[in-house]
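Sample A.
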Amino acid sequence: MNFGEINGPDRAVFLGLQRSLPHVLLLSPHPEAALLGRPQLSIPALLTFHAFLVIPFLIPPFPLNRHLFLGLLTALLISIVRSTTGLGQAEDYVLSIICVGFYQRFVSFFVCSPPPQKNVALARPGKEGYFGTWGLKDRLLALWAMYNNTRGVGWAWEVRTRGYASTPALPRWTFVREQLRKLALILALTVPSHILYPTVAEVVTAPFWVRSYRSNLCVFGIYSIVNGSYILHSVVSVSLGFSTPEEWPPLFGSITSCWSVRRAWGFWHQSLTLPALQHATYFSRLLGVRQSHLLTVLTGFTLSAVLHALPAWTISRTDGGMVVYFLLQAVGIGLEEFCGRPLGGVLGVQGRAGRVVGCVWMLAWFATTNVLFVEGLVAVGMQPVVDWRWALGYETVRIN
C-alpha cells in the first residue's frame, strides 16, 4: 500500500502543483530525483533515537553536556527523516512526524528546562520528593506521562484548556468503555470522509470555494485523528494502571471559545502549549530579551512549522508550503491584536456582537488559509489519514 503514488499518468500535474507552493524548505532543485536516492531506514538508528529520548532522565545527574547530547540526538533524527521505510510515503510521513514530535518534547524538558534532577516541571503536586529523588518506577511513569499525556493533568506541566478543566472521577473500566465509545464515533464520522479528500486534478481544476470546502472538511478529519490518538493513549494508559481517568480530560478545549483566530489556535494547540512556552523562555533567556506574548506565539507556530515541514520534506524534499502556512497564522493573530481589537473599540463592537464579528473573521481566515495546508499535503503525496479501502487492504489509493 502506498498513499500518493506519483509515478502514474498524472505525474506532471502532480509535480506542477508541488512546485506552485510557496516553499521555504527546498533543498534540491529536483526533489523528485533526490527522493530516488533515499537510504533505507536504519532500525538500530531508530531504536537508539528512542533510547536517547529516555536514558538522560533515568540517570540524573546526566554525565554528558546536554547540548552535546542534543547534537547526537539531532544527528540521529536527521538520519531518520531523510531515509525511507520502503513501505510507502504515508508510513515515511507518519514515522517522521512521530519522531519530530518526540524530539520537540525532549528538547522542552531536557534542554529548555533545568537538568532533570532540578526540573520543577518534572514533579507531581502532592507527591513527596522530586524527579531526581524518585525510584526507577516513578521516573518511568513520569516519562510515560511526559511523552504521551500532552495535557499533563496531575503533573506540574499541566496545560489548562478553555472550557474543560478535568474529567469526572469515573471508575477505571467505566472510563475505558466511555473512551472506546468516543473512539468508535470518531471512526464512524472520519472514515467515510475520504470520499471528499481532494485529488491533484481537483485542486487544479475546481473553483476556490470547492477547494476551501474540501480542505476544511479534511481539517475536521485531522482533528478527529488527533483526538482519536489521544483517546487511544488514554485507554492504554488507564487500562494498564499507568494513570487515572482524571488525568485524561478532553484534549481540546470547548469549541464555543473559538471566536477569533488566536482563540481557535488556543483550542487546537493544547499539545504544543507547554513546548511553546518552554522554548520561548529558553530563547528569550538566550537572547537576553524579555519574553513576550508575541515571542511565544511565533515560537509556537515555528515549532508547528517544523513538526509538519520535516515530515513533508521526508516524502517530497519540499516543505509542502507548511512553513508559510504556519507563520501566516502568526500574522493572522497579529492582525487581530494590532488592528482588529483597536478597530472594534473605535466602532463600539464589543460583547456578543464582537464575538459574532470575530467568529465571522475567524471562519473567513481559515476558509482561505487552510487551503494552503491541505493542498500542501496533497502536493507532497499524502492521501486521507483514514481510508476504509486502505485500512481493509483492498486496494492501493492513487492520487487521481
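Sample B, a different protein:
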Amino acid sequence: MDALLSGHGALTGAPWYPARAGDRLVVTYEATDRDPRWTETYEVQDGAGGWALRLVDHTAPDDALAGWFAGSPELCGGDPFETPWVEAGPDRLAVLRDGQVVHQGRHALSRPGAADPRVTMAVGADGTTGLVVVQERQCTPAEADDLLAKVVTRAQETVRDHPRP
C-alpha cells in the first residue's frame, strides 16, 4: 500500500500534473528474449465521458499487444496518467506537452523512431580530429549513461595504450 501511495504522490506532485487535452504519453517496453523493445504512444482527449487516452501509434511486434491503456481512467473522474503511472511505472513513461518533454522516465523513449542526423567532432585512431555526420537513434537516459561509461573507459584505454611521444 505504501508503494501505491508513494507512486500516486509522485504523480500528483509533478509540476506538469494533471494531464491536459493534447498531452502525449509514450510507454516503452524493454526488449525480451522474444520481442524487441517497443513503444506505444497515447494522446489525452477530453470527451463527453471525461478524460481518455487514445492510442495514436505503436511499434509493438503484434498489434494485439498495443493499446492496453487506451480508454477512460479506471477510477471514475481519475487522471488518464494514473493507471500507466502505477502499472507500467514512471521509469517507462515519457510525457510530452506542447511538443516538449515534461517527464522523461529513466527507461523511456520520448520520441520513438527519432533519428536526426547531426554533425559532430570525431577523433581517429591516429589522434587526428575531424567532422563527421552521425545518424542517431534515440536512447533512454539509462542507455545514455551506459554509453557514456563505455566511451570514458575506451578513451582511458586509448590514452594508456597509445601515449603521446
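Observation for Sample B: The beta strands are 24-29, 38-47, 50-58, 93-97, 100-104, 117-123, 129-135.
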